[in-house]
Amino acid sequence: MTPRLRPRLVGSAGLRVVVVAAALAGGACASAADRYDEGLALEAEGRWRDAALRYVDALEKDDTPAGTRARLALALDSAVFHGRRDAARWQRTGDAEAAAEIFLDLDDLYARAGAVGFVPAPPAGYAQDRRDALDSAVARVMDAGRDAEARGEWSRARGSYQQVRNRYLPTADQERAAWEAEARTLAAWGRAELDAGRYRAGYERAGDALALEGPTPRGTLEEARRIQATARARGTRRVAVLPITARAVVGGMSAEATAAQLADVLELAYWREPPPLVAVADPVDVRQAVRRVQGGSPTLDTRDVARLLDALEADFGVLMEFTSLTLSERIDRTTSETARLRRGGSATYAVERGRTTFEGTVEVLIVDSRGLRVTGFTEEADGSGSFERGRYEGDPAELDLGRNEARRFDDALHRARQAEILEELVAELAEDLGRRIYEGVLARIP
To answer: How far is the C-alpha of 122 from the C-alpha of 293, rounded, in Å?
Structure first.
């Protein structure tokens, strides 16, 4: 449907779109008397709806002028009278949506008046006129949706059925019909995408039909499931993720060990549950195939990768290398403390407080079955945490320390804390890598 400007009620002058400036009527700080005076001025212009709203604003304030409710009653009656007349004119000219918008506008006006305790009874016949206008709008928009379906304008058709539910206050039967029509449209859309060889789009549109919250006919649900099954059968691509390599060693911690840790997280948390239309080769099969193809060579060239993917019947291969792993420490504060010596006397030692930071970089290359580059990217992540460490010129065992103070000199504890930070880095890398690798593969599936 073509977007419509919503009609506004402006009295005997008919309908026009009113743009209210931010500074209209003196701004938000205007007093009740100001609002009342604005309402009188708007009445004089025949702008009954806007006048009624000014009186509502006045009634929301403490110093409401006398007679405001009477003016609101007059303005509201006039807005309803002219609105019904204009809605009838729109109905006669065949614009059911414009007529419905008038009644929706009046609904807003009644609600605003009711919020300040003014709840007049609508005039005789008003409720039926309102329902007739809404029903006509529903019928017209549903027809527009069916016409769009017939032309294969799926998004436009779906928007029409959503408009019926979200805008025109449908009856239970009308709402059910709109849900069913939207499901039918999505299934037909999915089938069209599938027939055109766009498997991912077909799968997604059928999934949208299955995910609708409203009632969906069994036949439509079955069709959507058939579309997804066919899309999986025709469109699924197999991916082989090669073992992660590494070339960095820092601070006594090998990037190779971190690469293995990253591979474990990816295998357990990501490769076992790929998105629809992606199948991931068993990592054990991949490692065995790599050893067979690699032989004694430490690297794989393009031909090796092509042979490897062919052996695994994979459409794509993913190569990852941990290219850097750095450890840095920042000391923010150093203090001195005194402790007793076990042999008697006392000694002073330093306490360093700061942050430990790991930064890692992984380069990713996605190749096709010939071993040729499809796409690639670099992923970076970091992890950090605070530390509190003791420094003593002699043997810390000489110091008579409590449990908390002794922890400052526990190297095993510090290494464990570094390992925890490194795990955080690996987890962040795994999340980003898993997402981006799947996105890279999915982008190559039609």
So the answer is: 83
- Phi/psi for 318 (5° steps) reads -120, 120
Mean pLDDT of 173-198: 98
Instruction: Give the number of residues written for the chain.
Output: 446
Q: Which helix (H) or strand (E) holds 386?
A: strand 373-391
- At 58, which helix (H) or strand (E)? helix 48-59
Burial 111-129 (b: 16+ CB within 10 A, else e): ebbeebebeeeeeeeeeeb
Decide if 239 contacts 278 (C-beta within 8 A).
yes
pLDDT digits (tens, 9 = 90+) for 231-287: 999 999 999 999 999 976 666 667 888 999 999 999 999 999 999 999 999 999 999
SS3 content of the chain, % helix, strand, coil (to 5): 55, 20, 25
Tell which residue, 177, 81, 169, has the closest CA to residue 131: 169
| Token pair of 421 as six digits | 């930070």
387 Cβ contact partners less than 8 Å away, ≥ 6 residues apart: 329, 352, 353, 354, 355, 356, 414, 417
Q: Which pLDDT tens digit goes with each residue over 74-98?
A: 999 999 999 999 999 999 999 999 9
Identify the DSSP state of 168.
S
Backbone φ, ψ for residue 251 (5° rounding)? 55, 35
Inter-residue contact 428 to 261 (CB < 8 Å): no
Query: Residue 56 and residue 118: Cα distance in Å, rounded?
Result: 9
Q: Is the pLDDT of residue 14 over 50?
A: no
How far is the C-alpha of 59 from the C-alpha of 41, rounded, in Å?
A: 17
**DSSP codes joined into one string, 248-301:** -EETTEEHHHHHHHHHHHHIIIIITSPPTTEEE--HHHHHHHHHHHHTT-SS--
C-alpha distance from residue 340 to each of 121, 311, 397, 398, 408 (Å): 88, 69, 11, 9, 16
User: Strand, helix or coil at 383?
Assistant: strand
The phi, psi pair for 352, rounded to 5°, reads -100, 130
Alpha-helical (H) ranges within 282-350 are 283-294, 302-312
Pick the closest to residue 360 from 429, 307, 310 (CA basis). 429
- Please state the three-class secondary structure of 101-142 as a single string: HHHHHHHHHHHHHHHCCCCCCCCCCHHHHHHHHHHHHHHHHH
What CA–CA distances, in Å, run from 438 to 207, 313, 336, 382?
19, 18, 52, 22
- Distance between CA atoms of residues 150 and 105, nearest Å: 33
H or E segment and range at residue 190: helix 172-195
Hey, what amino acid is at 65?
P
Instruction: Tell me the C-alpha distance between 78 and 48, whole Å.
Output: 6
